[in-house]
Design brief:
The chain has 207 residues and is an alpha/beta fold. The protein has 5 helices and 11 strands; from the N terminus they run E-E-H-E-E-E-E-E-H-E-H-E-E-H-E-H. The chain is globular.
Length: 207
């Protein structure tokens, strides 16, 4: 049995809709992205997790050694635990494991990217907000046709532009259908950006 993640599950209105896996940024919790997930799709179930690692009392999904320098051993362990927990949650809450789309912000987007690069068929799609490449895989994974949206800020002081571009390149090389939105903002999300994300979801998943 995988160690439990503190989480929140919100049932969906339509069983055929994807389940949104929401993963917060540093210092967030399982409630942070639920309103955004519901705005994106009012019919989807939502599985929202809290990171199990604390940094100065703030929840994260994996440890870092310094800003932008990740503890790779912990990243691998937490990525594996995340994938296992989603498997178990699908059985517990009776949602389709093959129809899980992640909504991740910052640290949550980075562990989502790690899951995409690590575990084949782990996700049916992804919205990655302010992500960077978490690690360099030995070989690109098989992500053929998986829709992925990356939304990044040109003025982001936390996420260097080349590390976002490298992630997009890796996902593209893996066969994913990658869309990149560059915002003239920093690390925070903007109202216009959230409208763009919602439009992408509707065009991609038809809900």
């Amino acid at each position: 049995m995988t160690p439990e993640f503190t989480h929140r599950f919100v049932p969906g209105a339509m069983a055929s809709a994807p389940t949104i896996l929401s993963l917060h940024g540093t210092g967030g919790d399982e409630h942070d992205l639920v309103p955004l997930a519901r705005m994106i799709d009012g019919d989807s179930a939502i599985l929202s997790l809290r990171g199990r690692v604390l940094e100065n009392g703030k929840p994260r999904f994996f440890r870092r050694l310094s800003e932008g320098v990740f503890d790779q051993d912990d990243l691998r362990a937490q990525t594996l635990a995340l994938g296992q927990f989603v498997n178990e949650a699908a059985a517990r809450y009776h949602f389709d494991r093959s129809r899980v789309v992640v909504l991740g912000y910052s640290n949550g987007a980075n562990i989502a990217a790690s899951l995409l690069l690590t575990e084949r068929d782990a996700l049916a799609g992804a919205i990655l907000l302010r992500p960077m490449v978490p690690f360099e895989p030995a070989a690109p994974p098989a992500l053929t046709g998986i829709p992925i949206l990356i939304s990044a800020g040109r003025k982001d002081p936390i996420v260097p532009t080349p590390r976002t571009e490298r992630l997009a390149d890796l996902l593209h090389q893996s066969g994913a259908t990658v869309s990149v939105l560059w915002q003239e903002t920093g690390h925070a999300l903007s109202p216009l950006e959230l409208e763009q994300v919602t439009d992408w979801w509707r065009q991609t998943f038809g809900t």
